[in-house]
Amino acid sequence: MVITLKRREGMTHDEFTHYQRNIHRPLLMSIPEAKQCIRRFVVSYPVPAPNCPEPDYDSVVEAWFDTMDDLNALFLCENWQKTVDPDHENFIDLHSFGRIICEEEVVVG
């Protein structure tokens, strides 16, 4: 699963990054279902890139699951729905949120 995230209005990129790293991520990793269901979890943040336009997003999240059952077990569990999901509104512009459930095809590497 790949998720694109933009910070909520009124928040700087640094505030967004701090919140995602130090508040939201520990919250996610504190629920047992995250440890049981997520195989790999990567967050990428934009860096200055001369001659490139400003990025459309403040972070891209990649979450690997072994099966669709594992993905569903996380997102349908009570801990996710009552603890983790409500926290998204504290730092994400929920109207620009993007998500794709996908299968990776390695082209190089």
Describe the structure.
This protein is 35% helix and 19% strand. It has four helices and four strands. The protein starts with a strand and ends in a 9-residue tail after the last strand. The mean pLDDT is 96.
Topology readout:
Layout: E1 2-5, H1 13-29, H2 32-37, E2 38-44, E3 59-65, H3 68-75, H4 78-84, E4 98-100
Brief sketch in words of this structure:
This protein is an alpha+beta fold and 109 residues long. It has helices at residues 13-29, 32-37, 68-75, 78-84; strands spanning 2-5, 38-44, 59-65, 98-100. The model has no long low-confidence stretch (mean pLDDT 96).
- SSE class: alpha+beta
Shape: globular
- The residue fraction in helices comes out at 25-40%
Number of helices in the DSSP assignment: 4
Computed Rg: 15 Å
Give the low-confidence spans.
Answer: none
The span between the termini is 20 Å
Summarize model confidence as the mean pLDDT: 96
Largest sheet: 4 strands, antiparallel
As a percent range, the share of strand residues is: 15-25%
Order of helices and strands: EHHEEHHE
The largest sheet has its strands arranged as 2-3-1-4
Q: How many DSSP E strands?
A: 4
For the structure shown, list the relevant keywords.
109 residues; alpha+beta; four-stranded antiparallel beta sheet; 4 helices; globular; EthD_dom; EthD domain-containing protein
